[in-house]
Amino acid sequence: MNPDLSNFFQQRANYFHQQVQVFQKQDNNYSWARTVFFVVALILVIWFANERDAIYTALTFLVALPIFIFLVKTHQKIIAQKKHFQFLKLINEKEIKRLEGKFDEFENDGAEFFDETHSYSADLDIFGKNSLFQYLTHTVTPLGKQVLADWLSHSADAQEIRSRQEAVRELGQKIDFLQNFEASGLAFKQEALEVEKFWAWVVKDNQLTNNQIFKLISLVLPFLFVSTLLIIAIFDLPLLWIALPFLLNVFVLGKVSEWVKNTLAEVSPLLTTVQAVGKLIGLIEQEEFESEKNKQIKNSLRHDKILVSKAIKKLSSLIANLEFRQNPYFFAFINIPLLWDLHFLIRLESWKKAYQKEAKQWFEAVAALEALNSLACFHILHPNYAFPSIEEKQFLYKAKNLGHPLIHFSKRVSNDFSLADRGTIHIITGSNMSGKSTFLRTVGINAVLALAGAPVCANEMQICVLQTFTSMRTHDSLSESVSSFYAELKRIRLLLDKLNHEPPMLFLLDEILKGTNSEDRNKGAKGLIRQLHKSKLSGLVSTHDLALGELAKENPAYINNYSFNSELIDNQLHFPYQLSEGVCQSFNASVLMKMIGIEIE
Predict the structure, then answer these.
(1) Please, how many CA atoms are within 13 Å of residue 163, restricted to the half-sphere of its CB?
(2) Whether residue 464 is found in the same domain as residue 416
């Protein structure tokens, strides 16, 4: 753990904790002030009412009401600010846990994206407990999680990768923006952010805005009602005269009531989503960016001359105003006279008509920035990690001091690694527990990071755009009557189906054909390696079978032997986890068996 970084995040956490305490005191003060003011105002209103003093009763009510509303709104802002600092404190504490390697307790692990049939994600721990996603993610919206998952599941093209790298470097210098952005999203995380439902509502056809009659009615009938009411008051006419405009309004509201109920059922659950995305968009609008991708994201959040955050705030207000109809007193005294339902239904549909072509890209822009934020926070945590050079070559993967990013630095062992030219295959032999499987995962997970636009756990790296394919964790299936050996064959069949695909393939095969006898394994493994070489696929094959090392003699330019070895020191096995050239010279199975009590002659 980098002590300087740990201290940096601890200092930030301490500062935000102090701010929480400051706002907690204000929260308590305003809570008492609201209560006391309300009780005093209520006593005065009741007192003046009992004294039959209508002027002072009305005056007290009119003065007290706006003051009370001001106290409530100010108190709500204080509570929101307190929660914001609580989230900022939590974010910095989680960064310390990441540095300590304790990220496995984070709730957001991306388990919903786990796919056993994916080319590499299951073998490389991309999703789920103790996964790369769990370590990386700072996403707060469902779409943000999806975008990050997509980036970790599919290689981008060279131009996009370079663009992301530039954006991540820039965001890495904006820690306050990153953390405020995440904290603002976390304020809504307890609620379900219904992004897909929002899109479904936005693209749904309007029913009223294209009907000029309803537009005319929404203006004329409220005017008629209010005018009639004024005439009655001015000329002291019977109140019964209001019956006709009242009944007309009730009739109109009855005609649109089904539309209003359906619309309210659709938009009410979306209010939290709208408020959350509006807050995040507002932060993006306020920030200045230099990198092309970040500027592109910000520029996509524009609509003519109006800020998108204001447009979304307007939508939030429209939804909230439509919800007022659910209050029976409001319905009787406001909705019916003013045709409130019809008026705000038309305004909601007008909003959709104005913004429906762009609304989806707003959400996508926020999600893209969430994914970039996750990579940028990873960059901040590991400033010594290198951004790989993306090469325009047929095949290249070269790294210096390549390590596994999910292994704590105190236990991590790094190795130099190079795999160049299509059809190049490294056969890696080694003893049990010597590090073969971990090394294959190290190569794979850093390729995933590199091609997502993130820095990699290496001092330097050059890599071309490639596809990664792994066969490491194959499992039998009782329900499908599939043995582990046949499961591995099915997995290899998927690799063979990709022989002629572009871009080039990096394959990682661990303990190849381990589920059959040594003779068949040797024949099958040699045949597969020759086939992969001839098909210009490049990758690593780990095995206990030393006989596979003979393949290097057939084509020494493209098939190479590497190994991981163990040492027996004072009757204790020692694993240096260092990649060496040549076939493994030390095996430890018999030693391990003796250590657990198996008698070996």
Answers:
(1) 13
(2) yes
Three-state secondary structure call for residue 542 = strand
The span from the CA of 114 to the CA of 108, in Å, is 13
CATH number at residue 425: 3.40.50.300
Residues 423 and 569 in one domain: yes
Q: At what angle do helices 436-452 and 158-171 cross, to 10 degrees?
A: 90
Separation CA 257–CA 58 (nearest Å): 36
Residue segments in the chain with a per-residue pLDDT below the cut of 70: 1-3, 54, 189-194, 207-211, 239, 329, 474-483, 485-486, 500-502, 514-518, 521, 568-573, 586-601
**How many CA within 13 A on the CB side of residue 237?**
13
| Cα–Cα–Cα angle for 90, 273, 315, rounded to 5 degrees | 130
SS3 at position 461 = strand
Q: Hey, is 548 helix, strand or coil?
A: helix
H-type alpha helices, 101-187 = 132-136, 142-153, 158-171, 175-186
Query: Exposure of 166 by Cβ count < 10 A (0-12 exposed, 13-18 middle, 19+ buried)?
Result: middle
Place of tokens 């990768």: 161
List the domain range (segments joined by +) for residue 258. Answer: 205-288+302-367
3-state secondary structure of 75: helix
**Dihedral angle sign, alpha carbons of residues 154, 157, 158, 164:** negative
Q: What is the pLDDT of residue 177?
A: 97
Return d(Cα 115, Cα 109) in angstroms, integer. 14
- The vertex-546 CA angle with 576 and 513, nearest 5°, equals 100
The pLDDT of residue 477: 45
Does residue 66 have a cis bond before it (omega within 30 degrees)? no
Side-chain half-sphere exposure of 558, counting CA atoms within 13 A:
18
pLDDT at 298: 94
Residues 323 and 357 reside in one and the same domain: yes
Structure tokens at 512: 């190849």
β-sheet bridge partners, residue 514: none
Domain contains 566: yes
One domain, residues 435 and 346: no
Q: How many domains, the chain?
A: 3
Cα separation, 382 vs 455, in Å, equals 8
Q: Name 569's bridge partners.
A: 572
pLDDT digits (tens, 9 = 90+) for 398-444: 999 999 999 998 899 999 999 998 889 999 988 777 789 999 999 99
Q: Dig out the tokens for 234 from the structure.
A: 């001015």
Question: What ranges make up the beta strands (E) of 487-536?
Answer: 505-509
* 112-121 per-position pLDDT tens digit: 999 988 999 9
Residues 6+ apart with CB under 8 A from 355: 202, 303, 311, 315
> Where are the strands (E) in 263-350, listed by range?
302-303, 306-307
Provide the 3-class DSSP secondary structure of residue 68.
helix
Strands 396-402 and 460-464, sheet pairing: antiparallel
Which DSSP category does 332 fall into? I
Q: How distant, in Å, are the alpha carbons of 167, 221, 224 from that of 227?
A: 60, 10, 5
Q: What is the DSSP letter of 129?
A: T
Residue type, 587: F
Amino acid 572: pLDDT: 65
Q: What is the DSSP letter of 419?
A: E
223 with 95, same domain: the answer is no
Distances (CA, A) of 308 to 164, 527, 541: 24, 60, 52
